[in-house]
Amino acid sequence: MNPIKLNSVSKSFNGKTVFENISYDFKDKSITSVSGPSGCGKTTLLKIISGLILPDSGTVVISENKKISSIFQEPRLMPWYTAIENVINICGSREKEESVKKAEELFDYFELTDAKDKYPSELSGGMAKRISIIRALVHGGNILLCDEPYNGLDLRMCLKAEELFINYAKESCVILVSHDKERTAAASESLDLSM
């Protein structure tokens, strides 16, 4: 069974239709690119899948025992936590030791080792974005929602992030929203909301 199934999902805001009757099966072990012009509802769709907002009609069926992890457009780091605390404090105490190890590996991978103990106000936008990616990967899950994950990253860091998503998709369902056409080329599936 596919991890996520959309059945005739529709959403509108203040009487304006964002999209309607979207039906789609997101496959496991793949990257699905969600495309379309600005305002067509790409971010809204990710929020509906994650349960942050409800559709007006239709259903979203998530397979049992599936855990969702999200990379938001904005880093959404807690200002009172250091960079490393922003990553590991979302994990339970039983997972803490393993989470710290994984986080430190990813901080090194993204060339952020010296930023671990800095607060969000001391970070550049690109650094904060990389930390938000690390947080989602450390949190883990069978479904990874990526909303403009390459924003604020230079090409070298985009390529590093892309490699992580490709590897992640070997075992999970990755849903990617990005205006970076070169990066969405890594997707094996595509859902176009402009249709």
What fraction, in percent, of the residue positions are helical? 25-40%
* Unreliable spans: none
* Overall morphology: globular
Task: Tell me the fraction of residues in β-strands, as a range.
Answer: 25-35%
Summarize the topology:
Layout: E1 4-13, E2 16-26, E3 30-35, H1 42-50, E4 57-62, E5 68-71, H2 83-88, H3 96-109, H4 125-139, E6 143-147, H5 155-168, E7 173-177, H6 181-184, E8 189-192
Parallel strand pairs: 3-7, 3-8, 5-6, 6-7
Antiparallel strand pairs: 1-2, 1-4
Helix pairs in contact: 3-4
Quickly list its features.
alpha/beta, 5-stranded parallel sheet, globular
Mind explaining what this structure looks like?
- This protein is an alpha/beta fold and 195 residues long.
- It is built from six helices and eight strands.
- The strands form two sheets. It has a five-stranded parallel beta sheet, sandwiched between helices. Strands 2-1-4 form a three-stranded antiparallel beta sheet, with helices on one face.
- Strand 1 (4-13) and strand 2 (16-26) form a beta hairpin.
- Helix 3 (96-109) packs antiparallel against helix 4.
- The longest helix has 15 residues, at 125-139.
- It is globular and about 45 Å long.
- The two termini are 26 Å apart.
